Amino acid sequence: YIGGLLVLSVFSSCEKEFLDRAPQDTLVDANFFKTNEQVLAASAPLYSVVWKDYVDKASWALGDLRGGTTFRAYGYRDDVLFNTTEVSLSNNEAYRAFFIVIGQSNTLIQNINKYAGAEVSENIKNHALAEARFMRATAYSYLVMNYGAVPIIDNNLELLNNPAVRRNTVESVWEFITRDYLFAAANLPATPVQPGRVTKWSAEGMLARTYLTRAGVGASGNRNQEFLDKAKEYAERVITMSGRSLLPEYADLFRFPYDNNAESLFEQQWVFTSEYGYANTMVSQITFSNDIANGDGWGGDLGASWWMLNLYNGLVTEGNPNTDEDDGRLPGFTLDDRLKATYMLPGAQYPEISQTVRDADGTEREQGLVFPAPTAAANESFASIKKYVVGKAKDLGGQATTQRYPNNTYMLRLAEMYLIYAEAALGNSASSSDARALEYFNAVHTRAGLPAFEGPLTWDVVFEERIKEFAMEGLAWYDLVRLHYYNPQKAYEIINNQDRGLFIVRPDRMPNPTGWTFTKTASFTERKASANSGNFELPIPAAEASQAPSLREEPVPYEFGE
After folding, report:
1. Rounded to 5, what percent of the chain is helix, strand, coil?
2. Is 297 left (phi over 0), alpha (psi -120 to 50) or beta?
3. pTM for this structure?
4. What is the pLDDT of residues 175-207, one digit of tens each?
5. Which of 112, 230, 236, 465 is most buried, judging by how many CB atoms fall within 10 Å of its CB?
6. Residue 51 and residue 100: Cα distance in Å, rounded?
């Protein structure tokens, strides 16, 4: 994968703000980097096409299937059950995408430094370099959390001349990530130069996330207090100084068009275009049926896991306190607005999405979506994905067709800053009643339609809030990796106690149900994953390891320059 990066061309014409540019043949065209506009055009692909292989399927296959928020009954079972191998599709797509991002970022850095003309302002030059280092750091953060030690590559040409590339230690990779984000924070503006571009607040938000994670690296029990303090500091800076704000309605975050809204800190910028690489294809993969799609809709066996639904207060009730076989057989309901915006339960209505329905005589007609109930004879159903599912072309002003959707995908939202602050303030304590941490936690909690949480905060409370806030945004797995750095046994216990099996959801009435019952499908026996120290990290894909056997050798520290 890495060796092919130099010849990957990512310039292509499409139609959205800074993505609108003339086609070019190569990233190393010395005649291209001569004006501010050309330099900015050169960094635009870093916001979409280079991430394509990750966002399309691997982001949710790793982030949510491995994380346990979502399960798939008949596909991607290796990710659901922690059997991801060297040849698993999600593993190969993720690894490839991350090194494509790194390779293109490195190439851009080298070309700007070598070819930027006299007409390119120093601000724009540094801006593009900061964008490249920001994206490189983001790719490396995913790599190190999935694979552990990985090779740090900052010069593609040197790599091609070094077939014995070695992995670098986890500590080295996190230091490299931190330095890239610090450079980005120092060189990006406080407001975007064009809508959708990252800013210093995007970089400081990533630093908050990075320091919270680094606090556990190499720790055994207690996390690094210096890094916890830095995480809290950067999170509060973004909350109080960025000008960003939480949207009043959670569901509005995922309705079209929501792109680059007041809560967004970093999004992948997708557009409706004939160019496959620049369109959002993830929607095709997660939409439950073509009845609400555009010749696609392949996510019919995807849905919220039993474990996930149990986190919504009041939803899954306990029918018999002495056994879990009866869980959910009494009608349950939740006040948490995030459920309807993330997963669909029978009877839930979404007037913004058109549904093709067939009458008894076979006539087809369109109506607003009412998520269907299972038949009387069924013994399984799915709480299908709603988040990022935006409907038919007619619902999007004509801006959709098969595997061509225009909606962006979040990489960082302001809500995460509030919860990072809360977790960092809790730190190594068992509980905390810190007033500001509670205030920030409740900004997210009450936005979901829930009464204020009175405290005290614990790690489990913050973790479960993060899971409900960011389900189907590819973060759950990385929350567990963060925990695994300093408390691996607790991470294994969470994963191994998650029920990831089939069940059936029945409303008490249709439409407008006032409650649902949940019954596990007794014949479905593969309900639990088995996570341990031998399968927690992903294996390096076989195709890559066979070409570079040195990747199997012990990692070495990275030698940083001045």
Report:
1. 45, 10, 45
2. left
3. 0.94
4. 999 999 999 999 999 999 999 999 999 999 999
5. 465
6. 8
